[in-house]
Each structure stands twice: as structure tokens, then as C-alpha cells.
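call fold(seq) -> C-alpha cells
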Amino acid sequence: MEQAGQIMGKATNGDKKGSQWVFWSLQDPKDSATPEELAIMDTHITTLRDTTLPPLKTHLKSLRTKLSTILSAPTTSDLAVLTSNLQSSNAEKKEKLKVFKEGGVRMVSKEEKEKVEKEWKYWKSKREGRRKIFSDLEAMLLEGMGKEELWEKVGIEDGDVDL
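ret:
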């Protein structure tokens, strides 16, 4: 740019650390604007900033939203894979439904289900009660001695019973 005559440069005499180059642009006096031209430019800039720019920003925002929606949508190949997966899943479910409709599997009534759940809760509470009794009894018997001593006292050897 210096050879083209657009800028000027000069080396400075620096201290012992070196020197540096300083550049400045050359301005053509014919290019300078009059105060009236500057006022017109200022008005034009203000008009663009106040009236033209806000709608353009709104339009840009809506276009970016549309673009993100388009980019987040599945591609045709993804849709083809999803469709084939759904079709195979649908075929499997139709086969299961066919077996149910033909009577190959006996359906459980609500009464039977409630009866089994009630019985399960009953035996669960019995099991929990027995576990608590065993824990309390074991704690009482182990006071002052270890499991090995208790086993020896009762006559149980290692390997006879898995506790």
C-alpha cells in the first residue's frame, strides 16, 4: 500500500531494544465532505438505524428460527429407518394380539389378580416378621460371644449349615 501511495511509513529510532515502524494514511483533499454532505449522511444513517434496521433484525430472527427448525428435523434416511422400525414393531404386536384373540393365552381376571396380590402381601408380612424375630434372637444370643462360639456351643460345625 505504501508503494501505491495510499499510506506513508517511517521508522523510528528507538532505544537499545529496537525501533518500530509508524504508518499513516494519506488523505486526498478532494475526498473531504462539506458540512452539508456530512449532515445528509448523518440523517441517512439515523434513518437507516431507526426505520430500516429493526424490521431487518426481526426478519433475521424469524429466518434463524426457521433454519434451526429445519436443521433439527429428521432427514429422509432417518425417517425411512424410523418407519421400517415402526413397521416391524407393529408386525410383532399384531402377532401377539393374534395369539391373544385366538385364546392361546388365558387372561387373568381382576379378581384373580387382587387375590394373588393380597396373598403375596400376607406372606411378605409373615416373612418380615420372621426376619425381625430371627434378628432379635440372634442379637440376644450373640451378646458377649461371637458366632463361632455360639455355633460351637450349639454343636454346629462350619459347613453344616449355611447361615
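Helices lie at 35-72, 76-102, 110-141, 147-154.
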